[in-house]
Design goal:
Elements lengths: L8 H12 L4 E4 L1 H7 L8 E4 L3 H8 L4 E4 L5 E6 L2 E7 L33 H6 L8 E4 L4 E4 L4 H7 L1 E2 L5 H7 L2 H13 L2 E2 L1 H14 L13
Parallel strand pairs: 2-5, 8-9
Antiparallel strand pairs: 1-2, 1-6, 3-4, 4-5, 6-7
C-alpha cells in the first residue's frame, strides 16, 4: 500500500487478538475514509470471518454481547470503548420479504430485510454501498485492500460511486441515498454519473428534491 494508516491502539489489539485466534479481521467503513482524509475517526467498525458466537468465545461473554436479528453482530466492551464487530456477509438469498408477512407493492422488490448470510471478505466488500466504504485495512500487517478496484482512486478523487448497479444498491437499502448525500455535503465528494442519475431520479420522484448538484474536488 502507499500510505500507512494509524488506528487507535485498542483497535489494533482487538484485531490482533482475533487474528491470533485464526480469524481474518479488518477495520472497515468510515474509519478508513476518515484516516485517509487525515481526520480522527469518531468510531471504528471491525469486520471478521469469525461468527458472532466465535467472537464472543474469543473475548468472553462478559465483554462481548450479540445483538440484532436482521443484522446480527457483536458489541464488544474493550478499554472503556464500545466496538462494533460484524461478520463478513455475502449477498442474501432472500430480499424484499418481511418474515411472516406478505410483501406489499410499495416495498422495493430487492429491499433487504435479513442480512445474516455469512461469506468471505471479498463477498462482503462487493455487497457494500459505495467504493469508498468498501476498503478493508489490516493494521497488523499494514495492508489496505481494495476489492472493487475503485475505492482508493475514488477516495483520492472525492467520488461517490455505487458498487455495481446503483439502482439495485438503493433498492436494497434506500437509506444509502442519504449516505451518498452525506458524503457530498460533509466530505465535499461528488457522485459519479450513474450514481448521480439514480439519486436525482429517486429524489425527484419523491418530490423531495428540485435539483441535485454536487460541489466537490473535481468541479
Amino acid at each position: 500500500m502507499t500510505e500507512k494508516l494509524i488506528v487507535a491502539p485498542h483497535i489494533y489489539k482487538v484485531i490482533e487478538r482475533l487474528q491470533s485466534a485464526g480469524f481474518e479481521t479488518y477495520v472497515v467503513g468510515g474509519a478508513i475514509r476518515d484516516l485517509m482524509l487525515g481526520r480522527p475517526p469518531k468510531d471504528y467498525d471491525i469486520s471478521t470471518e469469525a461468527t458472532p458466537e466465535e467472537v464472543r468465545q474469543v473475548f468472553g461473554k462478559r465483554n462481548a454481547r450479540i445483538i440484532g436479528k436482521r443484522f446480527k453482530l457483536v458489541h464488544l466492551r474493550y478499554s472503556g470503548d464500545l466496538i462494533e464487530i460484524s461478520t463478513f456477509r455475502r449477498t442474501p438469498d432472500e430480499t424484499g420479504q418481511i418474515p411472516g408477512k406478505q410483501r406489499k407493492s410499495p416495498i422495493p422488490e430487492n429491499m433487504i430485510f435479513r442480512d445474516n448470510d455469512y461469506g468471505t471478505a471479498e463477498e462482503d466488500a462487493w455487497r457494500r454501498d459505495f467504493t469508498v466504504n468498501a476498503l478493508f485495512y489490516d493494521p497488523v500487517h499494514d495492508d489496505l485492500i481494495d476489492f472493487t478496484g475503485f475505492g482508493i482512486g475514488d477516495m483520492h478523487e472525492g467520488i461517490v460511486r455505487a458498487i455495481g448497479d446503483p439502482l439495485l444498491r438503493f433498492e436494497e437499502d434506500p437509506v444509502r441515498i442519504l449516505r451518498a448525500l452525506k458524503l457530498v455535503g460533509q466530505y465535499n465528494f461528488i457522485p459519479d454519473p450513474e450514481t448521480h442519475k439514480v439519486i436525482y431520479s429517486a429524489y425527484h420522484a419523491c418530490g423531495q428534491l428540485q435539483a441535485f448538484t454536487g460541489t466537490g474536488k473535481n468541479t
